[in-house]
């Protein structure tokens, strides 16, 4: 499964606590941070923003921005922090991102993205990749996507993660942009066929193991988004299916493995709820899932809440869960 299965960068979701949890579920999946802007790293607390646990490897940081100087600075910071890959966000459709002139709107300005890529690659020795959509607004064609990819590949980019939907920048919310524009896998497959020397990873709507297998027959990788967050045990099942020598962990065992990490984080001032919010879907689809989710949601944010909340949540479930 190495370098074939990825967890998508998801704003407000794939923080370091989420990634630590997902790594327990899947030893081989490639993890991505939520997007960090180059401006935030330049003007803010870069050390905190780039913090991660060593167990997360392989892990990529996703950067947002359009200023080659700031993007190069951000890339250098990320590389020195030990990340395995740096990814440029050219897919986020939010108003805030557009106002900053980065994200999906940059598909219309591939030369700017290429300038950022070239500046970022200078002086670092880890891969710089691009995550993009298949188009934006009325630019919904193979030709538009090809022009974007050709410009970046000419600058040296060899890996593209393609969300197989266009982004509607005027009229749809970011949430709607994740579901309303129809998926067009064939455009991504044609992109790979036309560019056999590029590494193409498909993202968007993948929620079943059989679908992952179908995708991997056509492109180089599959990126899982909402399915991995809302049904995180899917990552363990997928890992075991792809690599049967990797044991399928028990859900309760995963909870117990989280406890030392949680105790360490609480001792450093973190609040329990900021960690456990990523774990509420662990038992999704099996008896007792509602009791688990409810107990954590009602108790993890109370003052002084500690690991006992998770143990009590387990006790509230059927023994067979």
What does this entry look like structurally?
The chain is 44% helix and 14% strand. The chain is α/β, with parallel strands linked by helices. It folds into two domains: 5-242, Aldolase class I (TIM Barrel, Alpha-Beta Barrel), CATH 3.20.20; 251-315, Four Helix Bundle (Hemerythrin (Met), subunit A), CATH 1.20.120. Strands 1, 2, 3, 4, 5, 6, 7, 8 and 9 form a nine-stranded parallel sheet that branches. The two termini are 27 Å apart.
Question: How would you describe the oligomerization state of the chains in this entry?
Answer: single chain
Low-pLDDT sequence parts? none
The major pleated sheet works out as:
9 strands, parallel
Radius of gyration (CA) equals 20 Å
Number of domains: 2
Quick overview of this protein structure:
This protein is 44% helix and 14% strand. The chain contains 16 helices and 9 strands.
Which labels suit this protein?
single chain; 321 residues; alpha/beta; TIM Barrel; Four Helix Bundle (Hemerythrin (Met), subunit A); 2 domains; 16 helices
Topology:
Blueprint: E1 5-7, H1 16-25, E2 31-32, E3 36-37, H2 38-43, H3 46-49, E4 59-64, H4 68-80, E5 85-90, H5 95-99, H6 110-121, E6 128-136, H7 142-155, E7 159-167, H8 174-177, H9 185-194, E8 199-203, H10 209-216, E9 221-224, H11 226-230, H12 233-242, H13 251-267, H14 272-276, H15 289-299, H16 308-315
Parallel strand pairs: 1-9, 2-4, 3-4, 4-5, 5-6, 6-7, 7-8, 8-9
């Amino acid at each position: 499964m190495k370098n074939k299965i990825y967890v998508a960068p998801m704003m407000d979701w794939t923080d370091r606590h989420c990634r630590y949890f997902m790594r327990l579920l899947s030893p081989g999946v490639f993890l991505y941070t939520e997007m960090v802007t180059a401006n935030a790293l330049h003007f803010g607390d870069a050390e905190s923003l780039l913090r991660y646990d060593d167990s997360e490897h392989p892990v990529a940081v996703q950067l947002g921005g359009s200023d080659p100087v700031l993007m190069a600075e951000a890339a250098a910071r990320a590389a020195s922090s030990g990340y395995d890959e740096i990814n440029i966000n050219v897919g986020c459709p939010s108003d805030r991102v557009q106002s900053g002139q980065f994200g999906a709107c940059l598909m219309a300005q591939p030369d700017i993205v290429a300038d950022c890529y070239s500046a970022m690659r200078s002086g670092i020795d880890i891969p710089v990749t691009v995550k993009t959509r298949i188009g934006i607004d009325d630019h919904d064609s193979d030709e538009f996507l090809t022009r974007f990819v050709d410009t970046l590949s000419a600058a040296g980019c060899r890996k593209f993660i393609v969300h197989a939907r266009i982004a509607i920048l005027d009229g749809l919310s970011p949430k709607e942009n994740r579901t309303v524009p129809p998926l067009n896998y064939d455009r991504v497959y044609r992109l790979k066929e036309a560019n056999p020397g590029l590494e193409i990873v498909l993202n968007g709507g993948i929620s079943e193991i059989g679908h992952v297998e179908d995708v991997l027959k056509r492109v180089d990788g599959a990126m899982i988004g909402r399915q991995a967050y809302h049904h995180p045990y899917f990552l363990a099942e997928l890992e075991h299916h792809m690599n049967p020598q990797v044991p399928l962990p028990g859900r309760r065992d995963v909870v117990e493995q989280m406890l030392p990490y949680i105790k360490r984080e609480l001792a450093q001032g973190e609040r329990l709820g900021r960690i456990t919010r990523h774990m509420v879907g662990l038992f999704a689809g099996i008896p007792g899932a509602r009791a688990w989710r409810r107990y954590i949601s009602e108790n993890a944010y109370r003052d002084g809440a500690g690991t006992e909340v998770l143990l009590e949540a387990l006790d509230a479930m059927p023994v067979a869960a």
